[in-house]
Each structure stands twice: as structure tokens, then as C-alpha cells.
Amino acid sequence: MKYARLTKEQLEELHPEFINFLATQSIDKTEWDEIKKHKPQVAEEELDVFSDLVWEGVLSKVTYLENISAQQMHLFHLTDKEMKLIAVKIMNPEIDLTTKVGFDWFRKNWQSDFVDYMTASKAYTDDPNQDKFELIKQGAVITKGELFQWFDNVIEAP
Q1: Coil, strand, or helix at residue 99?
Q2: Strands (DSSP E) along 91-150, which ranges?
Q3: Which of 11, 12, 118, 141 is the most buried (most CB within 10 A)?
């Protein structure tokens, strides 16, 4: 397995797609029930293959990721050629960006001396989707990129 097995909830959401996946292998409901009952290892392998296919599709379309912790934000723009990062660090230990109060403080004080910024970019390895998946495993979530774009515009402004 290249990525991670989808959760039970994710598999339930993708039930129609999973049925289509099984159908492409000429496995109908009766046969799937038999496989689950008599060959659980084969059923597990099918779930793993399906999970990897879903991850591959999702990761190939991901453009933005965010990883926000109490004192830091890592905002990623995943282009065709590289991963661009805008990192934000809060130097006030009383501020927690994961709370509404903390994020509101940040929105009012983003230009203060208590906020530090860094930008970077990094080329992908030979497997860009695996690079993206590693960021997700570390806590990043897929977003539409509003925060990254806002910061990118502020940084680029004359």
C-alpha cells in the first residue's frame, strides 16, 4: 500500500465508486460477500488498492495545503514543479492560532513584531504525490488556498 487505507467513513462516502471499482474487476455483490467471508485477506487487499487509487486521484488535484498549530502556520502552494511555503510564526506564547480568539488576534496584529514570516520553495522528489501525502500525514489539510493567496499578495505588493 502506497498511501493509507481510507477510513470506514470515507469508504462509506465512496460506496458507489467502490462498487464501480469492483465491477471493473468483474466482482459483483454476491462475489464480494463471498470474498469478505472466505478470503478476508483478498478483501483487505482490494480495499488497499481502492484506497491508493482514491489517494492518487486526490493528491494529483491538490493545489493548497495548510498546517496550523498554536504558534505556527505552514501554508503550501503545490505547483506543477515545486512546493511553495509561506511560514508564519507567532512570538507571543499567549496566542493560540487554533482558537477563534487567537486567530482574531493574528488578523489584527499580523504586521506586529510578534509575527515572523518566512517563504521558501522546494522541488518535488521523483514522486510529487508522495511528497504531498507526507505533508498531510504531518497534519496538513487540503484547502482552497485563501490564506496562502492573501499572504502571497501582501508579500508581492510593492
Answers
A1: coil
A2: 115-123, 141-143
A3: 11
